Amino acid sequence: MWVKTARAERGLVLNSGLAFGEGYMDGEIEPAGCTLEDVLSVLMENLQDSSHVLNRLEGSLRFARRHIERATSLAGARRNVAHHYDLNGTLYKLFLDDDLQYSCAYFERDDMTLEEAQAAKKRHIALKLKLDRPDLRVLDIGSGWGGMALTLAKDFGARVTGITLSREQLDVSRRRVAEVGLEDRVEFRLLDYRALDERFDRIVSVGMFEHVGVLNYDVFFGKIRDCLTDDGVALLHSIGRMDGPGSTNPWLRKYIFPGGYSPALSETLASVERSGLWVTDCEVLRLHYARTIALWRERFAAHRDEIRALYDERFCRMFEFYLVGAELSFRLQGHMNFQVQLTRSIGAVPLTRDYMVGGAG
Q1: So where are the chain's domains?
Q2: Domain 73-286+334-356, CATH class in plain words
């Protein structure tokens, strides 16, 4: 790579985790005779066994600050969500699938399109929720642009309440409900999960737990316990890591997901144990998100000129750096997704997993 300025050079020595991304955004660091993916692949592979003293020091300081940075208040949660999810809605329509699913898809076959894999993800989750009778009350924590809620209502007969902290997502979700005439089955609220005081037959949360904050894990699972009926079922879908608790890259934290963190299963399940909930199933999805992001990258590249017109060249470089780095974190750095099924009662789900396999309906 070509490091063009003394400022970028100093930054790489003093705070490489932040400076590399900023240097690329500002055009002060460029791949030389290769792609950004090539450069990041080499760097990430070497970081796995890095013995450089400053790199080790950076990592240790980030880990030491993790509890301070992740004590997410209600006001902080709203600011963090707005930073990323209240961007111009046109941006997401240009690289996501038609249903605006901004989370890991589920590839049952290698040749699935993005739309097919995202539909498969929703079906996979719905089967784990055991929607075995109509009119079950379902809570969707972090409901995004409404796709999961609409699917559960339309295809499985559920009555869904979706909650979000993003005003942009709330407006889009409510428009989508009105367009398909499901107002009697689906409602969306601008609400933090901590403010809930209702009980539901089923609870689902996809791609939201990464924003909860480590110090709030006990609060989160305690709220799930309190909001589930005695025979209720919950399904948590989250990005995770296979190598134990860690810290968030400072560039990602500053520019993409303030307050974001990919939890280890060990710290997640420890909090579940304290809540008194049963873990009735746990599945690890390894390379599904890498494939998902690769398809997002293709679509982003195909619409790059339109995205630059919405924002500017620096924004495009920022988002490209984010997408490339995110894909490689799943291919090279131990990131994965996990789905954990939770219940209050030992007998809330069947003894075997057979009901989780099958078609919709």
Answers
A1: 1-64, 73-286+334-356
A2: alpha beta
